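hey so i finally got around to running both of the ones u sent me last week. sorry it took forever, my laptop kept dying halfway thru and i had to restart like 3 times lol. anyway pasting them below in the order u listed, first the sequence line then the structure token line for each. didnt double check formatting much so if smth looks off just lmk and ill redo it

first one:
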Amino acid sequence: MPESTAIVRAWQTRFEDILPGFLPVLSQSPQLLFQAMHYSATAGGKRIRPLFVYASGRALGLHETKLDGIAVAIELIHAYSLIHDDLPAMDDDDFRRGQASCHRQFDEATAILAGDALQALAFEILAADPALSTQAAAQTEIILGLAQACGAGGMAGGQVLDLASIGSKISQAELENIHAFKTGALIEISTTAAAMLTASSSGERHALSRFGKLTGLAFQIFDDLLDVTGNSDIIGKPSQADAARSKPAFPSIIGVEKSYDRAYELRDLALAELVHLAGNTDTLAWLAAYAVDRDR
């Protein structure tokens, strides 16, 4: 899919260009907090969640400019979660995306507050987004959807379950449930937010929701595989981290080969959902394929 690759790369470049404009001005006070927010939010990465926002919008005929605020807000929620995940009380990681974790670059208190501030900023962006202000009902639905995706019924709840599983033997179904909360919920809102702005049918919404859930789980399984098989210099953090913390992961529960099989199965199920969308789904298909074919 060479055309889709070019489109995705253009979206990534564009997102890096617009992101700083949504962040606080570095020269203003409290400067240390703003520096920490910029440090983590602009540290690069795959930008997979904004890409899902733009790709689902493309399938529904929406231009990127209509979706920028949504894409940035979701990515800031993701950035805040990574800051907190890396803290000593959580996963205790010293590196993220090839650089020192926020609490190592600054300090733990500043990192916690930077994460808090990024989370608040995400909802401020959505509430003040001029591209959404003419569709108040949809704007409210998107804000509600993101709040649910990152709260106790989503990402935060998944992190609690994840931490509770350390040192325990859990089933594949239990692990999939953890990641449906921790990873899948935020990817699902990334694929469904655009549908809240259009006159999409219930079938299209359901397809995008299912696509997000399935691709999100496939993405997480492949992350677990990269922790076992990946190159630390490429993935940007030490490999074998899950095993070192006695943290349940797909390869340790069902084995490497079956983990690959499950990831590919989920990818195929996700791709099957795209037949229910009338628009151009090439970039969504590209993202589903990328979820299980990458080196970082």
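and the second one:
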Amino acid sequence: MNTQVAKNTVVTLDYNVTDSDGELVDAGKEPLVYLHGGYDDIFPKIEEAVQGKKIGESIKVKLQPDEAFGDYDEELIQIEPRSQFPEELQVGMQFEGAPEGSDDEDFVIYRVTDIADEKVVLDGNHPLAGMALIFNCTVTAVRPASAEEIAHGHVHGGDDDDAHCH
């Protein structure tokens, strides 16, 4: 069965991501499995490149920041008093919060980037924001999506996957 990647197929990609200098930013230890066909399950530019490919074919896609994780936004940097955080605070820890002046629904994941003199610096940008990225991927599997997957707009995996799909 030599299925091509087309709308409403579930595609498995072995991938890695490098920055424009060739430094590895995501080794892709787990394959990427997504529902193909404009469901926003993957960056649109990658989806375009994979369209029509067969199992075993490889692609390389360069994404500008606005096609990947967005430009770096200085306004997503916040400095908070150290006292608001748990004692075992480390650089790299993540907290959920709403940017100041926004609705509480607008949650952002903030990463601790610095701890100094009773202040904590939080960065709400994605770690790869502002970077041009190169996705190298190989199609390793293609299967027709189930009606339920198509209805929900994403892939359903094993038993644990149904818990967060309602």
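quick thing i noticed on the 2nd:
The mean pLDDT is 89.
anyway thats it, ttyl
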